[in-house]
Design brief:
- One of its GO terms (molecular function) is phosphatase activity.
- Keywords: Hydrolase, Magnesium, Metal-binding.
- This protein is an alpha/beta fold.
- The protein has 2 domains: 134 residues, Rossmann fold, CATH 3.40.50; 83 residues, DNA polymerase, domain 1.
- The chain is built from 8 helices and 6 strands.
- The protein has a 6-stranded parallel β-sheet, with helices on both faces.
- Helix 2 packs across helix 3.
- It is elongated.
């Protein structure tokens, strides 16, 4: 198999690491604080409510348009207000607690533990992430030469600008770069707009949403990438 790519960039959250479990753990700590003031909310403050609030916050602000503390506060405000709790100080404190515990239980997926070191023997690897998760303390950190975080470069996926920035950091042409990500909007559309080949890691076997272009490749486990790139 001919090797066409010099660099492989990965998304981080839900591609290499179990973001959902870590985020829900951090929300649990914030929820415990809220129940000290509003114990009657115990049944209502669910992980699903938190997920919907995260999505609503993303729709309103994207990932990087406001400072992270403000983003977390707005997310918690969206959690609380439908329950009749209009307490911005509580929302701010919950956001701070959430931020304190984010990344404390971040777990690398087993397939990533196996795949990343093998790819790193042949390719330069990079991270390209919108989120606040960080790879530096994870067991796979040593294998990544390039790290491009949206808040640091001033652009976020699906803007092609962050992909162009990643190519510049790696010193490669767009056609020499392969990108692996799980997001339909952020990753598939973003890579397509930048003219970069996309491997969609579809762990939960979702259907493509209306208006989302078909990715160049679709896999359900990172080990399947070896059918796409030679090692």
């Amino acid at each position: 198999m001919e090797r066409r790519h010099r660099v492989i960039y990965f998304d981080l959250d839900c591609t290499l690491v179990d973001y959902e479990a870590d985020a829900c753990h951090a929300f649990g700590k914030a929820r415990d604080h809220a129940l000290g003031s509003y114990p009657h909310l115990g049944v209502e403050l669910t992980d699903e409510v938190f997920r919907r609030a995260r999505q609503a916050t993303y729709i309103q602000y994207g990932d990087t348009s406001i400072p992270l503390r403000d983003w977390y506060r707005e997310c918690m405000r969206i959690v609380l207000e439908p329950m009749g709790v209009f307490d911005i100080e509580l929302a701010d404190r919950m956001g701070q607690i959430y931020g304190l515990f984010r990344n404390t239980t971040l777990r690398v997926f087993e397939d990533a533990i196996e795949v990343v070191p093998k790819l790193a023997r042949v390719y330069k690897l990079g991270l390209l992430s919108n989120g606040s998760s960080r790879v530096e303390k994870l067991q796979i950190a040593e294998f990544f030469t390039y790290k491009v975080y949206a808040r640091e470069v001033g652009h976020e996926k699906p803007s092609p600008e962050i992909f162009y920035a990643a190519a510049r950091v790696a010193g490669c042409k767009n056609g020499e770069m392969l990108y692996v990500g799980d997001g339909q909007h952020t990753d598939i559309i973003g890579a397509r707009n930048a003219g970069i080949e996309i491997v969609w890691i579809n762990r939960t076997r979702e259907q493509l949403l209306a208006g989302i272009p078909r990715p160049d490749y679709e896999i359900h486990d990172l080990r399947e990438i070896f059918s796409i790139v030679p090692v």
